[in-house]
Design brief:
444 residues, alpha/beta, 5-stranded parallel beta sheet, 51% helix
């Protein structure tokens, strides 16, 4: 399911409640692009407060102030009481630092001059936002919304200045009984962002707190894998992000690959978005993709050596990265690859005597790296598989002296499962034991 469809489902499910959806994923996979597709669909029914960092090192309250005060116009303020500012706005301005540089921009437009009293209110900075002001801020946003459902859209929250991040979290925590309208908050977090101000531990701490609030509908979406039918939209969003880099600016077009090319890219990547992103990056660097009449196409056969190398390289690097992260990852994956593309996890201990919690490691590898898939069909004997043949073969390539491993499997099966003819024969033939495999074939 594509991200807009997932967001649509979450949005509808939290109708009548305060909803929060966190979308996580690496950079360039189309989180922002697809989230904005969802927002565009609902723009007539939503009052959208867009909080988007303009640089990697914002000043205190910069992200919140920039987004919030874009919602305020001089005409709106002129309609208020004689002071030109409603009480709730005064309270907000008194408590949030650096607001005058934003408010003066929108109020003093020449048509509605501000007097000395108003100027003093606007320039009265606070050193830190105070919790008691949050209800005033919420009330002001609800007033500005004109009765529409309110959506706070927070892109790249890892780049927020910490005070802006705290304001958003405090707004989310306001009790539902204190709100007059429905609120929906969409948080986008880039997991591989450089030098994040808001780190992963900060986000995890907030998750825990939000989940404990019973009146909040909280959901988390991790954008890591896709389906074959998602490929055209995904490739479009990935290339859209890549074109922001100077090296790729010449690719000013929309991807228009053939169904066969999309399928080739999907099959080799296993649908893992980071692999697809890196493969497209490699193809563009090698000029195996070109731009003609506003369309990005490739005249190459994507099964040829040059293209296959571009597509397969991310898989090899991914496996190398997995091996660096945890000492049992390499041992577990390599022994699993000896068993085959699909394997029975209990064999890892029964045959190779790996003295640690195999299921825990398999689950961790699956959750973090998506290289394995648990088989949920209870009728199947083999309860795990690699995500595809390429990932299996690349793991297998790292192994030295495979002969001993295959002989250990054959010995175990002959002793404990002598009727498992095909598997016994397969492991014997891999190591060139034709004479020993021949009687097995006769029995079969």
């Amino acid at each position: 399911m594509q991200l807009p469809a997932i967001l649509e489902e979450k949005y509808q499910n939290c109708s009548g409640h305060t909803g929060v959806v966190l979308v996580k994923g690496i950079s360039g996979v189309g989180k922002s692009y697809q989230a904005e597709q969802f927002l565009h669909k609902h723009e007539d029914e939503l009052f959208i407060l867009m909080l988007m960092p303009n640089n990697s090192y914002p000043h205190e309250y910069e992200v919140f102030n920039e987004g919030f005060f874009k919602c305020i116009t001089s005409d709106l303020l002129a309609e208020k009481d004689s002071s030109g500012l409603p009480k709730i706005l005064k309270e907000v301005v008194r408590a949030i630092p650096y607001t005058e540089q934003y408010l003066l921009r929108y109020v003093d437009d020449g048509e509605h001059p501000i007097d000395d009293t108003q100027f003093q209110v606007l320039t009265n900075r606070g050193s830190r936002i105070r919790r008691h002001v949050i209800p005033y801020l919420m009330q002001l946003i609800e007033t500005l919304s004109g009765g529409k459902r309110i959506c706070i859209y927070c892109d790249n929250i890892q780049l927020y200045d910490r005070p802006s991040f705290n304001v958003v979290m405090d707004l989310i925590r306001v009790e539902e009984s204190d709100r007059t309208q429905e609120w929906f908050t969409l948080l986008l977090y880039t997991e591989n962002g450089l030098s994040p101000e808001i780190g992963h531990p900060d986000i995890q701490e907030e998750y825990t707190g939000l989940r404990e609030l019973t009146d909040i509908h909280f959901d988390e979406v991790s954008v890591q894998k896709c389906r074959l039918e998602d490929m055209p939209v995904l490739c479009h969003s990935i290339i859209h992000e890549l074109k922001k880099k100077s090296i790729f600016r010449k690719f000013a077009g929309t991807p228009d690959f053939t169904p066969e090319q999309y399928k080739c890219l999907y099959d080799h990547s296993g649908g893992i978005i980071s692999h697809i992103q890196q493969a497209l990056c490699n193809l563009m660097r090698q000029d195996l993709i070109c731009c003609e009449n506003g369309l990005l196409t490739s005249s190459y056969d994507w099964e040829c050596t040059e293209v296959k190398q571009c597509i397969e390289d991310p898989v090899k690097k991914h496996i190398e990265n997995i091996y660096k992260r945890e000492k049992h990852n390499q041992t577990t994956l390599e022994h699993a690859s000896i068993l085959g593309e699909e394997f029975y996890s209990s064999y890892l201990n029964d045959i190779f005597h790996l003295n640690y919690d195999i299921q825990k490691i398999l689950n961790q590898i699956t959750e973090k790296y998506q290289i394995l898939i648990p088989q949920k069909n209870l009728n199947r004997r083999k309860d795990w598989s690699f995500v595809n043949r390429l990932h299996h073969s690349k793991v297998y390539e790292f192994i030295e002296r495979v002969e001993n491993y295959h002989l250990s499997v054959a010995d175990f099966l002959e002793k404990n499962e002598p009727r498992n003819y095909e598997e016994i024969e397969r492991h014997l033939l891999v190591v060139g034991e034709q004479e020993r495999a021949f009687p097995v074939r006769i029995k079969n």
